[in-house]
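Troubleshooting log. The previous structure file for this entry was overwritten by mistake, so regenerating from the original sequence record. Sequence copied from the archived sheet and checked twice against the printout by T.R.
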Amino acid sequence: MFYPWGGYVPSSEPAVAASSTLMVSWHGAPYRRIIDGSSDRVIARVARKLAGMKRPVLLRWGWEMNGDWFEWDGSHNGDDPAG
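Regenerated output below.
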């Protein structure tokens, strides 16, 4: 399942068998929005929803960060691994 940063993330996913692990691909955000705390409420809200699923969840955050086509990749963040 793919979900946008700051957008809807479900608190359950009934279409996935209970015996399987749900993988949630969650869009990243520019590092500055995470470092400066402006995304804290978004992160906390999504964490509560995923924890509330009461099942294993694999969170795939900010995929393809090694490229140059997403706002969370290195080229958009000063090519600095520390952000």
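The two ends are 26 Å apart (CA to CA). Archived copy saved in two places this time.
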